[in-house]
Amino acid sequence: MKIVDIADEIYRELGEPTDNSIPPIAFWIRTNLGTLNNYLNTAFKIQKITLEVEQTLVDPDTGESYEILIDEKAASILKKMYFVHNYEKLLRTNISAATADTIIEVADQGSRVKKINKNEVTRVYAQLKSTEQKELRESINDYKIHGASPKQVVGDDTVAGVYSTSDQFNRISLTY
After folding, report:
1. Cα(first)–Cα(last) distance of the chain, in Å?
2. Which pTM value belongs to this model?
3. Strand runs (DSSP E) across 16-146, as ranges?
4. For residue 176, is it within any domain?
5. Cα–Cα distance between 83 and 87 in angstroms, integer?
6. Is 155 helix (H, G, I), strand (E, B) or coil?
7. How far, in Å, CA of 94 to CA of 124, rounded?
8. Is 63 within the bounds of a domain?
C-alpha cells in the first residue's frame, strides 16, 4: 500500500478538514515510521527512490531477501496512530483557546447569547483520544498475535516416546 493512499484514507476518514491536507499527513506517516516499527517489532523503512514504505524479508528456505510494501494491517495501525495524534492536537488547541469566548448564537430583542462550553468540548476530545488509544493498543496486540503464528509444526505429538530407565541421568529410576 502506498503512503499517499494511506494519507488519502486518513484525510477522507477525518471528513476532509480544511485545516489539513494529504501532503502533511503523508509527511507525518513517513516521520512516524520508527514508532510503528517499535510498536510492531518490524523493520519498515522508506525506499530511497519512490519514498514508499517497504520491508525487507528473508525467505527461510532459500535465504533470498525480497521487499514488500506495507500491508493493510500495519497501514490501519498507522491510521490509528494518526487519529490519536489528531485528537491530541485538537485537545491541545482547545485547551489553549479556553480563555477566549466563543459565541455561537446571538439574539437581538430577546437578548439571548449562547456560548460554547469549552470544558465539555475538551472532555469530548479527551474521550475520543482515549478511545482511539485503546483501539490502537488492541490493533497492535492483534497484529503481534497474528504475526507470530508458526508457519509449520514439525513432529508427531501422537506417538509416545521411548525412554530408557537404566540411564544414569534419568531421575525417575531408583539408582540415585
Report:
1. 63
2. 0.69
3. 44-46, 53-58, 65-69, 103-106, 113-115
4. no
5. 6
6. coil
7. 11
8. yes
Domain that residue 56 falls in = 3-147
Is 160 within a domain?
no
In a domain, 171, yes or no: no
pLDDT in tens, 15-41: 998 899 999 999 999 999 999 999 998
Q: Which pLDDT score, from 0 to 100, does residue 106 have? A: 66
Nearest alpha-carbon partner for 4 in 87, 69, 73, 81 = 69
* Tally of CB atoms within 10 A around 87: 20
Q: Which run of H or of E encompasses 76?
A: helix 72-96
Indicate the number of domains in the chain. 1
Residue 46: beta bridge partners?
53
- How far apart are alpha carbons 155 and 100 in whole angstroms? 70
Q: At CA 71, angle to CA 67 and CA 74, rounded to 5?
A: 120
Please report, as a single letter, which amino acid is at residue 152. Answer: Q
User: Which helix (H) or strand (E) segment is 90 a member of?
Assistant: helix 72-96
Residues of the chain with pLDDT under 50: 149-150, 176
Half-sphere exposure of 121 (CA within 13 A, CB side): 14
Within 8 A by CB and 6+ apart from 112, the residues are: 105, 106
User: For residue 115, what are the β-bridge partners?
Assistant: 103
